[in-house]
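[job 4471] stage=fold_predict status=RUNNING
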Amino acid sequence: MPSSTATKTPTTYVTGSPCAACKFLRRKCQLDCVFAPYFPPDQPQKFANVHKVFGASNVTKLLNELHPMQREDAVNSLAYEADMRLRDPVYGCVGVISLLQHQLRQLQIDLFLTRSQLSKYHQSSSSSSSSFTTTTSTTTNFFGGFRENQQQEQFLMRNYGVVENGLVYDGGIATAAAALNGSPVGFGRVRAAGGDEQQSFGP
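[job 4471] inference complete, writing structure tokens
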């Protein structure tokens, strides 16, 4: 059996009615009509506006000078400019462009101000975090020093025989311990050489 191969044939735009340009100009639409690919029969107003503003002969000359890949963009640009010129005979599309540029500048200013506000908030947050860290460090150092003083006091009491029940009292050591802890010096008992206990005041 012979193998069936699909052959691609170029598609052509076939219509029974002339393009919008030829219909508007009341002429026969040729196969090589330069307007036909860009002004279909169902868009008569598009060509009417372009013809009114630029003229059919000028558009024909422009399209013939352009590469076929560039013609569609050129026609769309001409159609937009013609439509805006008919809406605003004084400024045309320039008025719309100026308005869009103004809006763009305003948005850029708003964006700059917003970024400035965010930068201030970030700086304030960083300052608050730094202050909190400093306060925490100071508090830690305070309580650390307090615990160290307590440890020194306990060390002195152990080495010099200061007993919690007050039976033996050494005034000099108790004064040093009280100075470290910030507590007042109290009464105590001193054991005499003969073994008798005598009441004594701290210095």
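[job 4471] summary: The first helix runs from residue 20 to 25.
[job 4471] exit 0
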